[in-house]
TrEMBL record:
Keyword field contains Nuclease: no
Domain Thiamine phosphate synthase/TenI: from-to ranges: 25-205
Pathway terms, separated by semicolons: Cofactor biosynthesis; thiamine diphosphate biosynthesis; thiamine phosphate from 4-amino-2-methyl-5-diphosphomethylpyrimidine and 4-methyl-5-(2-phosphoethyl)-thiazole: step 1/1
Lineage of the organism: Bacteria, Bacillati, Actinomycetota, Actinomycetes, Micrococcales
PANTHER family: THIAMINE-PHOSPHATE PYROPHOSPHORYLASE (PTHR20857), THIAMINE-PHOSPHATE SYNTHASE (PTHR20857:SF15)
EC number per UniProt: 2.5.1.3
Residues that bind 4-amino-2-methyl-5-(diphosphooxymethyl)pyrimidine: 44-48, 75, 119, 151
Binding positions for Mg(2+) per the UniProt entry: 76, 100
Cofactor remark: Binds 1 Mg(2+) ion per subunit.
Keywords assigned: Magnesium, Metal-binding, Thiamine biosynthesis, Transferase
Listed GO CC annotations: cytoplasm
Family under the similarity heading: Belongs to the thiamine-phosphate synthase family.
Listed cofactors: Mg(2+)
Protein name, entry field: Thiamine-phosphate synthase
Length: 231
């Protein structure tokens, strides 16, 4: 099973913005390399402006970096992931949202072994998930926890209490539960206490002056915090 505890959503726009502003001088594959060396074990490529060809080229570059040390997931791009997996490139799967390709269709295209993440932030999303065959969805991304500048159409912030309630409602569905949105250093213990299996971050790593140090701190904080009593 993939380890989503500290999950880097490597975003092309946020990384380029940080580089243009002189926050750091790294490309997206370099950010991923630093994060993986610091202990991140799951990475998603989020390239909202990329064509399929650009996503494929970037995914090949990032896959050469992750190379089995971290799971690699593509945002939205089911067809690209299918193509790369067929070509033997180590891409583990895809994350889709509620208005992307349906999870049933994505699973049919990806096959049973791939990772399939799905955004879920409303009770009806969990109801729909309950109706799907077990194993269709591997993980849900639940957000936003805090307001975020990274996603213009992000759902309303739930806060940590809302996160806890939503994760409890998703218990027993056989999916990993990943918190996302406005998270960063200082949050791992609260995310774990709320019952999440992982926390996904964009800015906390991609827009940090040192992505390596930011990732190492999240890794250390996650590892030092206690799991949810329910396991
Ligand atoms: C881990 C994780 N959770 C949620 C999302 C959001 O996906 P989506 O709702 O499809 O929005 P976009 O990222 O595509 O704008 C995610 N990417 N990853
Ligand atoms: C990609 C994404 N999805 C969200 C959701 O709530 O589904 S919030 C989000 C952006 C998270 O970026 P940051 O860590 O910089 O706040
Ligand atoms: Mg999407």
């Amino acid at each position: 099973m993939n380890d989503p505890s500290v999950y880097l959503v490597a975003d092309t726009r946020i990384t380029a913005q940080a580089r243009e502003r002189g926050v750091h001088a790294l490309t997206l594959p370099e950010v991923v390399a630093e994060a993986v060396e610091a202990g991140v074990r799951m990475v998603q490529i989020r390239a909202k402006d990329a064509t399929a060809e650009e996503m494929e080229a970037l995914a090949r570059e990032v896959a050469a970096v992750t190379d089995g040390r971290a799971a690699l997931v593509l945002n939205d791009a089911v067809d690209v992931a299918v193509r790369l997996r067929a070509a033997g490139v180590p891409v583990d799967g895809v994350h889709v949202g509620q208005s992307d390709r349906s999870p049933a269709e994505a699973r049919a295209l990806l096959g049973p072994a791939a990772h399939l993440g799905l955004s879920a932030n409303q009770p009806e999303h969990l109801e729909a998930l309950r109706r799907l065959p077990r194993g269709t969805v591997s993980a849900i991304g639940v957000g936003t926890v805090r307001a975020t500048q990274t996603k213009a159409d992000a759902p309303a912030p739930k806060g940590f209490d809302g996160l806890r309630d939503f994760l409890a409602a998703a218990e027993g569905l056989g999916v990993q539960r990943i918190a996302i949105g406005g998270l960063g250093p200082g949050d791992p213990s609260r995310v774990r206490e709320a019952g999440a299996d992982g926390m996904a971050v964009v800015s906390a790593i991609c827009a940090a002056p040192s992505p390596r140090e930011a990732a190492a701190l999240l890794r250390a904080e996650w590892d030092a915090s206690a799991p949810h009593p329910a396991g």
